[in-house]
Description:
The chain has helices at residues 6-11, 31-50, and strands at 14-24, 57-62, 68-80. It is of the alpha+beta class. It has a three-stranded antiparallel β-sheet with strand order 1-3-2.
Amino acid sequence: MTDQSPRKAESDHFTQYLKCDVELNFTGPSPAVLNKWAADVLRALADRIEKQEFDDGHHEVKDRVGKPVGTIYVDYSEGDEL
């Protein structure tokens, strides 16, 4: 006999969703430098997302020196399986 609460059984039928929008704006001396800065910020955001550091909503994004460079929007939800 298994111990399965109604809540557990119900949650087995829902799909988890994550909506994540990132908007970054940089100005700099060359496309190569801008690409490097953007990639650095995106890698840092990926690490933070993986560590579950964001709640639902909009969050300011800063570069390595603390300068604001954009925003990230995160929305976790669940719904019926497709």
